[in-house]
Request: fold
Amino acid sequence: MAVITDEELRQRTRDLLAEVPPDRVDRVTFRGAQYDRGLAWVHFPEGKGGLGLDPKAQTVVDEVLRTAPVYYDDLAVNPIGIGMGAPTVLTYGTEEMHERFLRRIFTGEDIWCQLFSEPGAGSDVAGLATRAELDGDEWVVNGQKVWTTLAHVSNFGMLLARTDPDQPKHKGLTYFVLDMHAPGVEVRPLYQITGEAEFNEVFLTDVRVPDSMRLGERGEGWRVAITTLMNERVALGGGVRGRGQGPIAELVSVWDKHRDGLDPASRAVYRDRVTDLWIRAEVLRLTNLRARQNATAGNPGPEGSVGKLATAELNKAIYECALDLLGAEGMLFPGGYQLARPERTTLAGGSVQKTFLRMRAQSIEGGTSEVMRNILGERVLGLPGEPRVDKDVPWTEVPRSS
Ligand SMILES: Cc1cc2nc3c(=O)[nH]c(=O)nc-3n(C[C@H](O)[C@H](O)[C@H](O)COP(=O)(O)OP(=O)(O)OC[C@H]3O[C@@H](n4cnc5c(N)ncnc54)[C@H](O)[C@@H]3O)c2cc1C
Reply:
């Protein structure tokens, strides 16, 4: 592993800001320069947006970047591409794929989406039914995906498909990079409770995927998918903000505005609730900070489920408390309830009422809280596993509804 001191890294980042000022060039130019200098994801190899450093060194770069007049949050630029696509391509892709995809993922020129879930396969995604059949050096894909975030603005998708239905469910899968503009790919909006359609149904009809767009070996798709999923959990739950920032700051602001209108008994109860949530937010922040400091090179393991579970449950509780504090006003949707088709995911922002609704999805997306608890119990704490009756049965013989 390369060694560069924190001070040297800070200086390189300051040089980037001075030589390619983000307030004077566009996003693609700035982030392209960041990538070329190895400051995109410092733990990636040199020439691929990194410097071969320890992953925790990224916090040094990010701290300096945050002081710039324009700051690009990876999760706003290309959440799925950066959080999950890039580490999966780096781990399983060919040199040609690294060259073709990594820089454009980081700059946001290519938005990526994740085509895993199906109407009959969510938590049990290994049971999915989308088929890919080999025809010469191309695969012909047929099936339906669902809840595909940002598919409507994506150039590429991470596609998990069944290539050998006679194998048990985890063994007959193969992983592909899908060109979202290929003939036979149809994307239809799905509106969420907020009125926004961040996600979609994706219908795949005789879509031809070159074998050169396969990630990993044939039948090894589950292993590749695990890399994507582990990175997803860290992307969704591993963020470290400053103390008191993020959702908890919004709750404190609502408390400040509404506490004087409460009777003394209610005020004492809410004060207790807000304080408790503030402490939970701080404990989670410190836990994520410690996890980041202990992070080693390579892909994250099942412990990423801790942050994902805790973040989802905490954010829901924070916005429940904020909504309660709003009282009757909490039932109204400021600005009116409108159907929209955003080009970015918008977890927070806008009104408290809207964020309350959006946060409900946090304990579902990227794996539900129940599933996170199962992973924690089995893979982190070493508790006995759930009974899995279909583990060694050929997929074709497993009963299913669709
Ligand atoms: C906002 C949002 C964005 C999403 N984006 C994407 C995306 O981009 N790409 C993608 O592929 N998918 C995406 N998803 C789908 C998401 O991954 C699935 O919804 C999730 O994995 C749950 O699957 P399911 O909806 O089929 O529910 P099910 O798996 O049917 O679960 C239903 C209920 O049963 C519980 N349950 C299931 N199995 C167990 C078990 N073994 N033990 C205990 N309880 C269990 C679940 O916790 C849940 O409460 C998104 C979802 C949301 C809400």
